[in-house]
Structures are given as C-alpha cells and as structure tokens.
Amino acid sequence: MSTVDVKALGKVAVLMGGSSAERPVSLMSGEGVLKALRSRGVDAHAFDPAERDLGDLKREGFDRCFIALHGRHGEDGTVQGALELLGIPYTGSGVMASAVAMDKVMTKRVWLAEGLPAPRWRCLSTEEQSREAAREVPDALGLPLIVKPAREGSSFGVTKVRGYSGMQEAVTLAAQYDPDVLCEEFIDGDEVTCPVLGEGEASAALPVIRIQAPDGNYDFEHKYYSEDTRYLVPSGLPEAEEREIQRLVVAAYRALGCRGWGRADLMIRASDRKPFLLEMNTSPGMTGHSLVPQSAKAAGISYEDLCLRLLAGATLDSRDRKSTRLNSSHRCISYAVFCLKKK
Q1: pTM above 0.85?
Q2: Is the dihedral of CA 114, 118, 121, 124 positive or negative?
C-alpha cells in the first residue's frame, strides 16, 4: 500500500465492545486492531461505548475512530450518526448504508430491486409469529429452510429447520434477538464469502474464501472458536466462477452505498452453480478466525497494513460528495420508503 503519514492520523479511538449480542467478538476484533495500529506507530486507544460516553471522544481530543463494533449500536448506523454529529471521521460505511445493510430484509429488497440474486424469503413480524402462521412458511419456501433474526449477526438466533414441527421453536429463538424474523429458502451448495475494499467505482473485491464447516454447520462456535472449520483461499473454484462472485459482490456493495470495506456472504447452489447473496457485513470481524484478514493476506495485504489502510480512509458523510456511493444511498432511501409503504 502507499505510505501513510501516521502522525497525520492523530489520536485514534478503536471502538470495541459495545452493548450488542456480539460484544465478545467485538472485543476480540478491537484488541487485534489496537495491537496492529500501535505496532505501526499509531496513537491508538481502546474505547468501549458501553462503558463510556461517546462525548468523551470529543472532549479527549480524538481525531478519528476505527469502528470494531459489531451488531446493534455499532454496525447499524447509530454510532455512525453519533460520530457525524461529533464531526469525528470513522472507518467503514456511513449512516444510511450501515442501517440498510444491518437489516437483512431491507438489504434483500434493495438487491432484488437492483436485479441481484437472493434466496426466496418471507419476513414474520411480531403479529405473524403464531404457530399457525409459522407452519405456513415451509409451504411457500420449501424444506429445509433458514430462520434468523432480521437484524443480528454472528449466527445468533439462526436455525436450519428441517420439518414443520421445528418452525415454532426456530421463530421463537430468532424473535429473542429481533422483533422481525426472516425465513429464507435454504440453498444447498458451497458457502463462500468475499470482502470488498474502497468506495464507488474504485471499490474492488478481494479473493473469495470457500468455507467448509463440520456437517455444514457454520455456527457461532465454528466461526470464532473451533479449529475444525476450513477456510480455503484460494477458494479452489473455477476462475470464471470466482470472477463472477467478485463481480456480484462489488455490485451488491455499491447498491447499498457501502464504503471503506465490507464482506458479503453467499451460497452457490450445487445443482446449477448459481450464486445467491445472503447478507452484507459493513463492520466485519477482525479476530484470529475472521475472514477479511485471511482474504487480504491472500492478496498480499498484511493484517497491520489492512488496519492502517482502513484507518487512513476514515471519513464523514457529506451531501456534496458526487460519488456512486451517494447516488446508491439515494436509491436505497427510495426503495426503503417504497417497500415500507407496501407493508
């Protein structure tokens, strides 16, 4: 990467921890980022919004923030909005893209409106989560299917439902994490993920990672603690297939108006090798088992250089930024309003 003037970065807060269900993962990510930045001479400090007032960032003279928060109040546009008000540049996507990407239902609506492939789905609001309503979902989506919270990460509250009798328990579990429950067609095939760096027309995909979890169960344990999950990078996919996934992921990233970095998760259907977008992570994990650092390493970018590059790109939203990101954000607003009116 090009040389970064570390002194120009100023005093940096690494936001970690937070109050979401993903707090333990965020603490691991934040510690890794903090160590990496300090190793490159950055004046970096840990800052936990669950234990301190965000106003302290301004009072203590922080110049920019590296967001290593995951989930609610960290990845959903709320902390981004607070930093906008404080006038402190931050890493990753802005308020609109963060909020839309955190909501899996809104994300699907935007992608489908853009002609991007996603599994068939149905959202169950609080009023639609009765046993009778839940048992109707497999008739529309088939079995097995996936049930998950509409706004959560790290596989919290996710269930693979194999029969009608398992629907209500799965819906009840997901509803513990979010009022809205997303039921999604199960795509049988290869599970892959692909990070993106940059903004607008300059955004580009990193190498695709193919994930092989024991029994195909890529749950919280297998994501962050198990040594049994295999991450294949190079992915071993045919070259044309990998290029298509990278093209699709960049299109999905731009459609949501993301910037800085992100990571899209996909399934490749075994029967016809068609890829389907599942979700976009706008504040991906940076732990020892996390995927973006692995993909970056395969592209010749070290963990430390990745952290420094992301920090150097920290910025604020601005209405006069004439970029693909801003135009995409406007489209996201239009689609979101349109879809809300339909509900």
Answers
A1: yes
A2: negative
Which tokens in the block code for residue 285?
A: 């994990």
pLDDT (tens, 9 = 90+) of the chain, 343 residues, equals 558 999 999 999 999 999 998 999 999 999 999 999 999 999 999 999 999 999 999 999 999 999 999 998 999 999 999 999 999 999 999 999 999 999 999 999 999 999 999 999 999 999 999 989 999 999 999 999 999 999 987 678 999 999 999 999 999 999 999 999 999 999 999 999 999 999 999 999 999 999 998 766 545 554 545 578 899 999 999 999 999 999 999 999 999 999 999 999 999 999 999 999 999 999 999 998 899 999 999 999 999 999 999 999 999 996 444 433 444 444 444 444 344 434 4
Closest CA to 284 of 295, 275, 276: 295
Active-site annotation, residues: 22, 154, 224, 263, 265, 279, 281, 285
Cβ–Cβ contacts within 10 Å for residue 268, how many?
A: 21
Q: How far apart are CA 235 and CA 42, in angstroms?
A: 34
Handedness of CA 39, 40, 41, 42 (dihedral sign): negative
What distance in Å separates the CA atoms of residue 18 and residue 48, rounded to the nearest whole number? 6
